[in-house]
Specification:
It comes from Rubritalea tangerina. It contains three helices and two strands; from the N terminus they run ααββα. By secondary structure, it is α+β, with helices and mostly antiparallel strands. The chain has a domain of about 140 residues: Orthogonal Bundle (Helix Hairpins), CATH 1.10.287. It has a two-stranded antiparallel ribbon with strand order 1-2. It is rod-shaped. The protein starts with 7 loop residues before the first helix and ends with a helix.
Length: about 210
């Protein structure tokens, strides 16, 4: 931190800084509120995705109960080949989004598989997509949380440190300038009185 200059130019600089801080603070606080709102929304969506796992598993179990049978393993027929993430801008923060999912299916004889096999494959694909979406939703929550924390720190810096410091500096400089002005007035009066005495003494023929 630079040393405070107790002068009129220093006072002007502090006033300009205070004006700038007060101008910037409302926009920072607005962005903070927006980010907190988006973070809350992202957290709610994430929790909803997590909460959907169990109901979906029950639904699949009802539609394809054979999946619970020992020895049923569909991983040899289907696997997640790749998925692509995109980016979404939320209040100036880049957060991930799901662009595409690509599965790799092994050719199998349709006539040689049970009637429920296709439903099971589709259920596995949907469940995998649900897990990926939940993963990305968690990443969105983290990104928005970090951004909200960072902007909150900036708001606190302006509100609790920079603005109070500038106000205190202005007050300190004003007091110093007022004291200096009073001192100058007193010195001027003393010098004038002394000059008057000297003048009177000279007129009287002595010092």
């Amino acid at each position: 931190m630079s040393k405070l200059t107790l002068s009129k130019s220093g006072l002007q600089r502090e006033r300009e800084s205070l004006k700038l801080y007060r101008k910037v603070l409302p926009s920072l606080d607005l962005k903070r509120q927006q980010l907190l709102g988006e973070h809350k929304k992202a957290e709610r969506e994430y929790q909803e995705l997590l909460a959907s796992f169990e109901p979906y598993a029950r639904e699949v179990a009802e539609r394809v109960p054979m999946l619970a049978s020992p020895g049923i393993d569909l991983s040899q027929y289907i696997s997640l080949k790749d998925y692509q993430k995109g980016e979404e801008n939320i209040v100036g923060v880049k957060v991930p989004s799901l662009d595409s999912l690509e599965f790799e299916l092994v050719d199998y004889a349709y006539l040689g598989t049970p009637h429920w096999f296709d439903h099971a494959i589709e259920a596995l694909k949907q469940f995998t997509e649900l897990k990926i979406r939940a993963q990305i939703a968690g990443e969105r929550v983290d990104a928005l949380y970090k951004a909200a924390r960072k902007i909150t720190q900036r708001v606190n810096l302006f509100d609790k440190i920079l603005i109070p410091r500038a106000e205190a500096n202005i007050k300190k400089i004003q007091i110093h300038l007022a004291d200096a002005e009073r001192s100058a007035v007193v010195q001027s009066k003393l010098a004038k009185a002394k000059s008057h005495r000297i003048t009177e003494a000279l007129k009287g023929g002595g010092v």
